[in-house]
Amino acid sequence: MFISIFFQLEDSNSEDGKPKPPDVHIRMPRIVNACPPGSPSLRLALVVLSIGAASHFLLFLDSVVDNLLPAAMPFFLSVYETKENANHAWEMLVSSRIYGLAIGCFIAVLLSHQHGRKLPVVVGTILDVIGVILTLLITYVPHGVTVATMGRLINGIGQGMVQTAGSVMLSELPPLKKRGTVLATLTMWACMGELGGMTISLDEFFGTPELWQWAMGFPLLVLLPALYIICHAPESPRYLFLENRENEARKAMSYYQSPVDCKQSIEEILMEKQFTLQMVKEKVDENGNSSKKERDGLVTSIIERLKDGKFTRALLIALFVQTFVHLDDWVDIKRKVQNHHKVNFSCGFPTRHRFLKTLD
């Protein structure tokens, strides 16, 4: 869109009878504010909460299946006839989501390097929704357990993608002074998901043989609004700057941050970009002859990161800690199933007892 501006130049010699100069027409591009009206803090908060809901809140689905087995077992026995086969099917249903998480993390790393942060977050959230819907079909379609198992696998892939790319995106969206608070919301969502899954599986809610399958569909209430918000949010400004898409990056930055914070964040990103270019530029030997250029791309960036001792030490400590944090998720599934049978069925404990036992 253009604005036409015209004005008439004054002629200092008009009294001499000379003809006046013609009107001058100037076409200038209309400057449109691409940023929607409203508070940048509110827009940032909505995107942050949406990413957390599509990733760490889905621990709800792990927590809920830990307590639903007594309510679901009558259905599984009607399908598989023996307890052994029913237990095996339940174990596969529970563990499939964990395998999906591992797959989703690797996919997110590849996609985010080539296509930015937003694409894997959006695709992952869509997979989250599809997975939950398939899980809800467990009692309503033929081979429902297989469909639900595939649904949990798909949901795990989706969460892995959002959890990996979304965490990076969350570290890039807010101003420096708010980054810690923004990343802490992921822990909040994880706690809410765990507690919500335990609560909704109580007898007073959905922990009954008639309603247990609906407990696994509760995350749709937060996933659908989250998907809408994420789809309408712009890409990470930092990624756009690193891709030399400066105009888009500045518009995206104004979406998430106030003008004062924008200036500081842009300066920080440009300094980082300059440092990165300095690391990958062509090396020159002592005689001034150019040596072969370093390979660019994902492999080079990983190697450069690993050469940094501070980064490597922190990475090893994090891997060591996280391995033990999630060890229970991998090795404890069968014990939980057996424990449910020995304690909950034989003793007739209600779900309130299982709820308190899980809190321990």
From TrEMBL:
Entry GO terms, CC: membrane
Keyword field contains Electron transport: no
Transmembrane segments: 92-112, 119-141, 212-231
GO molecular function: hexose transmembrane transporter activity
Domain Major facilitator superfamily (MFS) profile: 48-360
Principal place of residence: membrane
Membrane topology label: Multi-pass membrane protein
Pfam families tied to this protein: Sugar_tr (PF00083)
Alphabetical UniProt keywords: Membrane, Transmembrane, Transmembrane helix
Location within or outside the cell: Membrane
Matching InterPro entries: GLUT (IPR045263), MFS_dom (IPR020846), MFS_sugar_transport-like (IPR005828), MFS_trans_sf (IPR036259)
Record's keyword annotation contains Plastid: no
PANTHER family assigned: MAJOR FACILITATOR SUPERFAMILY (MFS) PROFILE DOMAIN-CONTAINING PROTEIN, SOLUTE CARRIER FAMILY 2
Protein name per the record: CRE-SLCF-2 protein
